[in-house]
Structure formats: structure tokens, C-alpha cells
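Hi Y.,

Following your request, here is the sequence exactly as I used it, all 221 residues.
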Amino acid sequence: MSGFTQALTRGMWREIPPFRLVLGLCPTLAVTKSADNGLGMGAAVIFVLVLSNFFISLLRKLIPAKVRIACFIVVAATLVVAVELLMQAFAYPLYQTLGIFVPLIVVNCIILGRAEAFAAKNGPLLSIADGLGMGVGFTCSLTVLGALREAFGAGTVFGARVMPEAYQPVAFMVEAPGAFVCLGLLLAAMNALGRDAGQPPAGCRACGACYEAAARREGGA
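Below is the corresponding structure, written out as C-alpha cells. Let me know if you'd prefer a different format.
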């Protein structure tokens, strides 16, 4: 598999941010009351992540190491302002719904994490692929979580009814505790699928050391 393909697909499953790296949980929990909100926030993060990776990769040799984090934040903040203006112009109801979480994209750990771990060490093309892959994985995660909460909490997905007319919505699912319950269930499912596929569990940074150690133990036995 080529480096470009690896960078592009890494964030879509093997290192999908909320479920494998356990990053970006604040917006994951806060804005996913509906599939629309999850998709909208994910699209904003894709825009910022791809362009911040691109610009940081271009400037990586010019940015002094001692102030690199501050420079990364300046780049991200500039792009977040652009996202805010675009959302206000073309998707104002969504902007109002997402509220403070749009400007908070600038300190999203996924943005700074990819800038530090990847864009600052690789060329523009690979950095764009990495940002796009991570952003798409994050967007899919938020959309799926939002769709589940909306389906059980309101009986709809993207505003279209998916439950029978007699279905009584579980209001708990569109409240804060429901976000934690849904996230926990999805984390458990991802860990189960990853274990079957030989992937590391959520939260271990996808280094694979635990599975290598288990393989050595089994070989020794």
C-alpha cells in the first residue's frame, strides 16, 4: 500500500479519531443530538483539518520549533474564522445550532494533534491525505452517533421519520447522558470488531504493542 493511500485511509478505520484514538470527544458528545448536526460539524472539521495540514506542511521548515504550537493555533484560528463566516452566510441555522463549538474547533485536539504528529513532518500531498482521511473518519463517527441518538430520541434521521408512528421517543437519548451511553456502545462495538480484525483497542494510540506481546506469549506457550 502506498504512503498516500495509507495516510488517506488511516483515519477512516484503523485510527478513526473518536473510537480508536479517543480524540475530539467534546464535540462528539455535545453536538450529536441529530445526524444533521454531526454531519455539519464534521464538514467544518474537514475544512479546517485539511487546510491546516496543508499550510503547516508548506511552512514547516520556516516555523521555529519553540513557537510551533502557537503558529499551529494561528493557522487553525484563521481557518476557523473562515468556516464561521461561510456558515453564517450559507448555513446560518446550523451555525446557530452548533454555537460555541464552531469557534472551539481551533483547539480541537485532532487539529493540533495531526499538525504536530504528521503535517509538521511530511509534505503537502501526504498531509492533505492525512487531514482528509482523519476528517472523513471524524465526520462519519459524528454522523452515525447523531443518527442513532436522533432515531431513538426523536424517531427520525436527518428529519425523516424512521420509526413507526406508535413509537414513543426516548428523550434520554438526545440529552447529555444519552450521548455517553451511545458513545460507550459504539466504543464497545469498535473494540469488538477491531479485536476480531487484529486491531488494537480504543485509547491505545493504535501502536499494536499489546497484540504483538500477546502473539509472543502465545508463541512461547
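Residues 3-220 form one domain.

Thanks again,
Q.
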